[in-house]
Amino acid sequence: MGWSMVKIAFLLHLFFCFSLCVSRASQGFEHASGVRTLTHEIPNHHEVHCSRERSRVAWQIIEEYLMPFVDEEEYQLPNKCRLHPDNDMFREQEQHKVHVDTNEWRCGFCKKSFRAEKFLDQHFDNRHYVLLNNTHGRCLADLCGALHCDQKSELKKTKKCNPAAVARNRHLCEGLADNCFPVSQGNKASRLHELFHRQFCDAHTCNGRQKPFSRGGKKQSSVFYLAICVLTLMLLPVFYLLVFLHQREMKKGIQDLKRISKAGRKTKPS
Ligand SMILES: [Zn+2]
Q: Which residue ranges does UniProt annotate as crossing the membrane (predicted)?
């Protein structure tokens, strides 16, 4: 009775871990892939002075390190707040990206397919540029200094600290905190104002002691999940073996075990 329960628990546990691992691993694989192809649309220059890539990094930072707390407080970002989704000129396009398969990205507006995300980006720039309206400072990339985009993307790790740049970013950061979470708006806004400072603004110093995103974020990296999965899968059999041995010992008693070990010693080659 006890042993069959252990078996069922073991199988369930194994299945759960395995499915989790597979889903995590495939996610990581999809993100890592990006096959190049020569067939792409001819660039059509509609000058937009805002980096799509950096805007995407800024958006990821907001999604990961700010929105979980905003959602938890059930707080509505004011429209004038530059972190509001409506103030990201690429948001509508990004929401119309359909990642069909590893090598297939589809445009949600006209259903055209592309072999890599960057070609879909080019397609958006060429065919759907009307949506890119930057009239009211809707470029999230401009906030990258305040939001520590470089820290996140780990592309530019500058050792030297520039006090003027740090002061500028801190000022930008504090401006965001004041506009998005006005203290006069009540307790929720005050708490988030405080959090925004801890999470983003406090790290704008040259002393190097404060790290950005000190309050943590939503998602763990897939590498971390994979490591946990592998470890769990490796340790599970050991755990169940121990449970099994313990149960057997309880059932048969120490006397039986002694007899078995004596018999084992006799058969050993000398
Ligand atoms: Zn399209």
A: 223-245
Q: Calculate how far, in angstroms, residue 120's C-alpha sits from the geometric centre of ligand 1.
A: 8
Task: Say how many Å lie between the CA of residue 140 and the centre of ligand 1.
Answer: 22
Rounded to the nearest angstrom, the gap between the alpha carbon of residue 174 and the centroid of all alpha carbons in its chain is 25
Helix or strand (DSSP H, E) at 212: none
Distance 15 CA to ligand 1 centre (A): 40
State which amino acid sits at residue 73: E
From ligand 1's centre to the CA of 82, what distance in Å?
Answer: 27
| Ligand 1 center–CA 101 separation, angstroms | 17
pTM of the complete model: 0.65
Write down the pLDDT at residue 7. Answer: 65
pLDDT (mean) for 181-186: 96
Across the chain, mean pLDDT equals 80
pLDDT tens digits, 184-230: 999 999 999 999 999 999 999 998 778 889 888 875 555 666 777 67
Q: What is the CA(121)–ligand 1 centre distance, in A? A: 10
Q: Which tokens in the block code for residue 178?
A: 């004041």
Rounded-to-10 torsion of CA 182, 162, 147, 139: 90
Ligand 1 centroid to Cα of residue 126, in Å, is 9
Q: Looking at residue 185, what DSSP letter applies?
A: G
CB 200 within 8 A of CB 173: yes
Distance CA 177, CA 70 (A): 13
Distance 125 CA to ligand 1 centre (A): 10
